[in-house]
Each structure stands twice: as C-alpha cells, then as structure tokens.
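ugh ok fine here u go
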Amino acid sequence: MKKTDKKTEKMICMALTQVCETALESVDDFVWITHMVNYLSLASSLNVVCVFKTDDGLSRAYQSKQHEYLYQLINDQLNRVNIKLSRLDKQVHFDTEEACQRSHAGKWKERLTKFSAQHLSQHLNKRTLH
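structure:
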C-alpha cells in the first residue's frame, strides 16, 4: 500500500467510524460497518457494508427508510474527507449477522472476501464494456 493509500484509508476509517457511532445510537438493530476498496479506482470501487444484527431488523430498517438515512450519513461523512462515491446506491450495501451465520458459519472474512470479489468482477466487466 502506498503512503497516499494509507492516508486515504485512514480518512475512510475516520469517516465510517463517525457513521458507525451515530448509527449505533440512532438506527435500531445496526451493529457495525466495514468497507472494501481498490485504490486504483477509489471512487468507483469503494464499497461500504452496513451490518444489522437480524434479518428482521434490516427489514424494519428498510420499512422505516433508515437505509436512506444511512446512505446520507455515509455520503456526508465521506464528503467531509473529500471522498465521493460514484454510485452511492450501488456502493452501500446492507447485510446481517444472521445471514452470515447461515451462509458462512459466521465467518465474516470469507463472506466479505466473496462479496468483494463479486463486486470487483462486476466493476471490471463494466469497465471493459465501455
């Protein structure tokens, strides 16, 4: 990782930590947030995953439009550190601990690695089509 990438990573982490702290206080069933990024194409490759405890909790968040609140919160905090997402609605994702337990036996590293590979593949396919 280059020195500039490390600085950018630190800024992303600071922004998402603020999102997490705010969401923990204001979004029911929200538990944590993480991200994946390819620094060669930061704006289009940065993916943020908001994790809820239960599937029902995530469903309630969608029903009460809390996902839109999280989109805005993430966008605002990243903008504060001069990071702009290309497609917010395609780069912010929602998941649950229940779903990870069901499909990956609670192994988040495996789940996120698979997720990251899928989105990188989609991103590369889109770039080759243009």
